[in-house]
Specification:
With 203 residues, the protein is of the alpha/beta class. Helix content is 34%, strand content 21%. The chain has helices spanning 13-22, 41-50, 66-76, 89-96, 113-117, 141-144, 163-170, 190-202, and strands at 4-7, 26-30, 56-62, 80-84, 101-105, 124-128, 153-154, 174-177, 182-184, 187-188. The strands form two sheets. The protein has an eight-stranded parallel β-barrel with strand order 1-2-3-4-5-6-7-8, surrounded by six helices. The structure holds ligand LARABZUK. One of its GO terms (biological process) is L-tryptophan biosynthetic process.
Length: 203
């Protein structure tokens, strides 16, 4: 199965076009307060729509109010929503009534019935990520091999140099990265973005 590739932390039209031209399947737009990659819904909307009809536009949220998520997602015209943080399954189910959801889990969540319940909701796809989102720290792929959910995406410290190994270890449906694709906070490195997409495609 072809692995999907998401380039997260897009903060400009320039970087959206860069990732789309590199062949990314999805762009992430971070709306979490306090993120050094936070983008306004207006910029996300302009940049995401410019990437064309086949590139997914993912709004990224961390523990934010339900109405904030729904209003921002609408204003930014995202095509999916990524939810970080200890939000309830009811909350995830409500967001999934309006948008496809990438529900971010940490490895320690995998044993928790209430966290796993959400994965049975229609339109909700799990994404395994490190405890600190956007922190550039890889997960222990070998330790996850037996418990990695079917159809899940993988994030956490991925970049051109390790994405092939990660894909071969866990066979995720998609991969997502930000820290290792930047030349500065919120600014993409063209070389790293191209190399990441190319490496993931060739895995
Ligand atoms: O990157 C951030 O600043 C961020 C802040 C708050 C919530 C989510 C955030 N990033 C979300 C992502 O999907 C990252 O791509 C993912 O955590 C992987 O990051 P990295 O380990 O830096 O590749």
């Amino acid at each position: 199965m072809t692995v999907r590739v998401k380039v997260c932390g897009t903060t400009s039209l320039h970087d959206a076009l860069l990732s789309a031209e590199a062949g990314a399947d999805a762009l992430g737009f971070i709306f979490a307060p306090g993120s050094k990659r936070r983008v306004s819904p207006e910029v996300a909307r302009e940049a995401g729509l410019a990437a064309g009809p086949v590139v997914a536009r993912v709004g990224v949220f961390l523990n934010q109010g339900l109405m904030d998520v729904l209003r921002t997602a609408e204003a930014a015209r995202v095509s999916a929503v990524q939810l970080h943080g200890p939000v309830s399954s009811l909350y995830v189910r409500e967001v999934a009534r309006y948008h496809p959801v990438l529900r971010v889990l940490r490895p320690t969540d995998l044993g928790q019935p209430d966290m796993l319940e959400v994965l049975s909701f229609p339109g909700v796809t799990p994404m395994l990520d490190a405890p600190e989102p956007g922190g550039g720290v890889p997960l222990d792929w070998a330790a996850l091999r037996e418990v990695f959910p079917a159809g899940a995406w993988l994030a956490g410290g991925l970049g051109p140099a390790n994405v092939v190994e990660a894909i071969r270890a866990l066979r995720p449906a998609g991969v997502d990265a930000v820290s290792r694709l930047e030349q500065g906070p919120g600014v993409k490195s063209p070389e790293q973005v191209r190399a990441f997409v190319q490496a993931a495609r060739g895995a």
